[in-house]
């Protein structure tokens, strides 16, 4: 296969152009706008759809389709009535490090906004995941994830009231839950199981995160245990697909 000399290792092979060389008109416009994005730099204001249509001699609908894909990929974002170049995606490590630690490592300011903190009897399906019996009291804490005050995700945490009895009184919901467990209660995470899938947000979730319902989301389910192997928490976290990527270090086993 013929690779261009300037082909980036992580880029689509042959820049996504089929061997027969015929590409959709919108895709050609998308490639041109992508080059323009590189020239403008982060927060640069993109020309209007009308101006781009004139520049590339195509219809506004063709431009609109190209911009739609670049928005979904996180290269662009809406700002007021205009469109600007988005910054790089946040890289979240697949590890027991908290969201707070991951965001700070990239020079961003992490934050959380509390939506609700409820206490209810544990249902059957949840009981084994957090190590309690059916009917025992459980906390559910829902928070919007922030990075430099930008809403980037939605997190639901389930934990036994017996293990964290004063969650509603002494925990600052804008802070790291993991740090609170470690520093105030002496609870240390040992290991966790995670499952990642792509989903679309529900209308409620999209409203809380501030995204269109059609924007793809990365959904992570996590079941954590402490250092003794006892179940600790069950977390469901939605991350904006246009603002996040995930990294993992893989070592040789066996």
Layout of SSEs?
Layout: H1 25-40, H2 49-56, H3 60-72, E1 76-79, E2 82-85, E3 90-93, H4 99-104, E4 110-121, H5 127-130, E5 137-147, E6 150-160, H6 167-170, H7 177-184, E7 189-200, H8 203-209, E8 216-226, E9 231-240, E10 244-247
Parallel strand pairs: 3-10
Antiparallel strand pairs: 1-2, 4-5, 5-6, 6-9, 7-8, 8-9
Overview of this structure, please?
The structure is a single chain. 26% of the residues lie in helices and 33% in strands. The chain is built from eight helices and ten strands. The protein has helices at residues 25-40, 49-56, 60-72, 99-104, 127-130, 167-170, 177-184, 203-209; strands spanning 76-79, 82-85, 90-93, 110-121, 137-147, 150-160, 189-200, 216-226, 231-240, 244-247. A hairpin with a 2-residue loop joins β5 (137-147) and β6 (150-160).
Task: Tell me the number of helical segments per DSSP (H or I, 4 or more residues long).
Answer: 8
- Could you tell me the radius of gyration in angstroms? 22 Å
Overall morphology: elongated
The helix content is 25-40%
Proportion in β-strands: 25-35%
Number of strands: 10
Give the rounded overall mean pLDDT: 85
Characterize the largest beta sheet: strand count, sense, and whether it forms a barrel: 6 strands, antiparallel
- Which strand order spans the largest sheet, edge to edge or round the barrel? 4-5-6-9-8-7
Secondary-structure element series: HHHEEEHEHEEHHEHEEE
**CA-CA gap between termini:** 35 Å
Helix-strand makeup class: alpha+beta
Low-confidence blocks of residues: none
